[in-house]
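Instructor's aside before we start: the two examples that follow are unrelated to each other. I chose them only because their records fit on one page, so don't look for a connection. First example below.
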Amino acid sequence: MTMPDHKPERKPDQKPEPDQKPEPDEPGQETYAARAFRALESAGASVRVQAALAVGTDPDPRFVGKLVERCAVEPEFHVREMLTWALTRHSPSITVPKLVGELRSERAQARSQALHTLSKIGDGQAWPAITRALLTDADDEVARAAWRAAVVLVPEREKPGLAAVLVTQLGRGGPETRLSLSRAVIALGERMMPTLQAAMAASDPQVRQHAIATERLWYDPDAGFESAIEEAKRVAALGTTSQDE
């Protein structure tokens, strides 16, 4: 008697090995895409991160919308990082427009994670979407992500204009937010210096101290931010800057 061909059964949640393409879906069976979508919404963070890893390992345009959707609501940092990685594995021609669309979301996490992912993709077509509204967003996480994305995406000729917007945020937030802003300003290179030096003479002491600390970090990148701030306080109190010393 001839036995019928029989494929080994694959468990519903089993993902293909990194070098293995998904087997064709048989009629009546749940599709691989549907299983991946379900896994990305699993209650278990370990399942979600493995699903994102599998989707990024074997990129497929069908997954991009779901990955972007999950970025907006995923509660775990390490899972969000894997979602971002998975998106970077897909074509920017597909991912960038969808991520740019998220920048208009009312959900802060959607905006911040989209900005973070755009900074990792590094495709300049996203630059026009990095608006002043995002760079000055009331949510610190969104603003910080916008600063990081902006310095990656900005064309050389537009660096002075970006610096002018960034210095309006000097003195904002706590130490982490201020350090993020200092790093973004410094990343613009020499083109930011005239704008930064103008801020060093600001009437607001918080702005002035932050600007001076940023200049200190520019000249001494190994200096800690806290020590740069303390030095900035001393300099501001004495009314001197590096230009005067």
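Example two begins here.
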Amino acid sequence: MPSEKISLTHFSLSLSAPHHDFQVFAFAGYEAISQPFCFMLDLVSEHTSMDLESLLGQPAFLQFAPDSGGIHGLIDQIAQGDSGQRLTHYSITLRPHLARLEHCTDQRIFQELTVPQIIERVLEKHGLLATTFNFHLGTNYPKRDYCVQYGESDLHFIQRLCEEEGLHYHFEHSPTAHKLVFGDDQTVFPELEPVIYRQDTALAGTEPVIQHYKLRLETRPNSNVRRDYHFEKPLLDTKGSANVNRRIELEEYDYPGGFTSNDRGDHLAQRALERLNHDYLSGEGRSNQARLVSGHFLRLSEHPNKEWNDLWLLTEV
């Protein structure tokens, strides 16, 4: 949900590095569930020379909401631009620690570990302590006899494991840190304060409103079927399936499904169907509310279509 105009007169950037006088001139950003966020900031400073290398990788907090709401990340990119009579232009990009994992590839074998345990080992390899990430899971995951990372980045490896098991992640921000939160259902997502719908943009700047909102339906499979072969039980019909009732019937079939019990097959089929249908019904809007954060529920209110006045999960901002 893009923000048309945030009704604030001041944004601020906090850095642990001393002796900086950066002022935020403008910023744009993107964040979504199960993706590393990216925020690009245009800054100005009275200093015509900065040690850019010393700032690269430093933690920073961009505050853009009056209640200390904002984005905490690491400086992933920094550049110096033109200098005027008094001010020099700089630009930085903030991304999470997790984004660094896309620059590291490996070839590893993991044995007798669950997917959450494998992810934890990869994160710890990059210095992410247990205090910087959480698993809020409602399902017990089986140990994998043999799991291989082969020539893929550590970030892609984690993304692949999450997709296979139906895990998702989002970030929680504070002025001093950002936390990576993994989940497998919607109970992990907190709820934001309700926002009213007002198509009349004259209210923009006086109170947070949703100014535009539209609903979209897309064609997606309504059934997922997967099969596998159990060499110790060759006569067993090893199958998993999941479906939802829809007027248009479309099936995705997968073999081998990567399981040896039908219960496990049903679980994987259900997660695959949920992944395929995550955008079957979606809404898109525009707001001046600065506190919209992906991975949070938002209640829409006072829309003329009363069926739309409900909780909506913010998947992308």
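The first strand starts at residue 12 and ends at 15.
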